Amino acid sequence: MNSLNRFVENVQAIWGPISSAVVAGCRQQLDELLKTPVTEPWLADLHQQALAQQEMHRDPENGFVLLAHTEPEGLYRPPHEHGRSWVIYAVQTGEIEMGTYTKMQDPNGQVKLVKRGSTKVSAGQTLVFLPGDIHDTKCISGPALLYRFTERDLKKEDQEARKLTRYVEQDGDWVPASQCTPGWLKS
């Protein structure tokens, strides 16, 4: 059995509603997956193909999804939140900087983000984001290969429930895309 299959089996065995134990158990399994030698064929293929995104596993019974991303140095993904889902990022190679934010509302009811700080996530490390956490990502040493483990299919979540929130920079502040002045966003 290869390490990817072992990861899936071990996560299936501990899976349940979000709890400290489930999140910690999944993080521990990702930590183990990061130790996979590049000689395992599935990992060698990931390195060789270097795809922007590749689905590694979609669990039909439990709904969790494991994706692999290869990101070039300098790639920036603006602040966003994953709605009802929790997410674990695991860096296999390279280094990613992840900023965290909180929402603040001004007296007029307008929302803007305030940056709390940032964490450099290096090869062999993981970082957890719980429902409602807001973060951005920037590849600072690449190309980076990282895994994104999500509790559910985020594309489906976004299309059906419209629970994911993306932010855009407007007048020096990060604001919800839905709050932007009409016509401000360019297609």
Major sheet, described briefly? 9 strands, antiparallel
Q: The CATH topology is what? A: Jelly Rolls
Full CATH superfamily name: Jelly Rolls
Low-confidence region ranges:
183-187
CATH architectural grouping:
Sandwich
Number of strands: 9
Number of helices: 4
- Helix and strand composition category: alpha+beta
For the CA atoms, what is the radius of gyration? 17 Å
Outline: globular
Ends apart, CA distance between termini = 47 Å
Number of structurally distinct domains: 1
Strand content: 35-45%
The helix/strand order is HHHEEEEEEEHEE
> Which CATH class is shown?
Mainly Beta
Mean pLDDT: 89
Helical content, roughly? 10-25%
Report on the structure:
- The chain is of the alpha+beta class.
- It has a single domain, classed as Sandwich (Jelly Rolls).
- Helices cover 23% and strands 43% of the residues.
- Strands 1, 2, 3, 4, 5, 6, 7, 8 and 9 form a nine-stranded antiparallel beta sheet that branches.
- Strand 4 and strand 5 form a beta hairpin.
- Helix 1 packs antiparallel against helix 2.
- The longest helix is centred in the first third of the chain and has 14 residues.
- The protein is globular.
- The termini are far apart.
- The relative contact order is 0.19.
- The C terminus is likely disordered.
